[in-house]
Every structure is written in C-alpha cells, then in structure tokens.
Design brief:
CATH class: Alpha Beta
CATH superfamily: Periplasmic binding protein-like II
Structural class: alpha/beta
Number of helices: 5
Strand order of the largest sheet: 3-2-4-1-5
Strand content: 15-25%
Radius of gyration: 16 Å
Largest sheet: 5 strands, mixed
Shape: globular
C-alpha cells in the first residue's frame, strides 16, 4: 500500500499538465489541430489570417514536447525527428526553431507577430492568446 501511494504521488505532478497552443495577440483567435499540425510539419507557412507563421518548438526530451506532438502531430519524438531529418536531407524544409523552456517559448510568442508555440495551461497569462487545447 505504501509503495502504491508513493508511486501515485510521484505521478501526480505529471497528470496535471495540459498543453495549450498559443499565439501572439495579433494572431488568429483559434486554429484546429490539423492547421497547427501543418505548421509544425512544414505543410503550411501562414496562419489562417494570412500572416506568415513562425512555429516554435521545445527542445527534444521535454515532457511537454512529447505531449504536444503525441496530441497534435500524431508522432512520437523519434518519428518527428526522423521526419525532419528526412526533410532537411532532401532539401524539402527546415524544422521549426526550438527553445529550451516553456518560459522562453511564451516570451518569444508574446513578442513575435505570427509566432505559434505551446506551453502548459498553468503558464498562460495575458501576454499570449490560447488558440487550441488539444
């Protein structure tokens, strides 16, 4: 029983994380998961309002990145990285720029027109606009 309680306590912080997709205040009011996916896999270069898009990803190995790609792009980290390796190798595209923390993503999105990123819902404030909760 004690081991079960300890295991549940260790997992509890991870179960409350909820990824949300954010944009700059000048960005669209909403996007669907397919539109966001297309930005992060290079199929689309613009936001629904016609503004050039600047997708921002977290660095590999972060739990929030795993959650985002699982829910939105439908790919594991290995699949997503392999996809972009092939795109770069064949000259078909470059992956979204990456930042090392959700705080850096939020700050960059807040200050960059057309930027789209993702953070934990608990980190949302008035500096960014939530456009999707996958």
């Amino acid at each position: 029983m004690r081991n079960l309680l300890l295991a549940l306590c260790m997992l509890a912080p991870f179960s409350y994380a909820e990824v949300v997709v954010i944009t700059n205040a000048s960005g669209p009011d909403a996007m669907d998961a397919n539109e966001v996916r297309d930005l992060f896999i290079g199929r689309s270069k613009t936001l629904p309002n016609g503004q050039p898009a600047d997708p921002i990803d977290l660095e590999t190995g972060q739990a929030l990145r795993e959650e985002f790609h699982s829910k939105v792009t439908g790919r594991s980290q290995a699949q997503y990285n392999a996809f972009w390796s092939k795109q770069v190798f064949t000259g078909k595209g470059q992956p979204p720029r990456t930042l090392n923390s959700a705080a850096a993503v939020k700050a960059s999105v807040a200050s960059t027109p057309g930027a789209v990123g993702y953070i934990d819902s608990s980190d949302v404030d008035d500096s960014v606009k939530v456009i999707l909760t996958p």
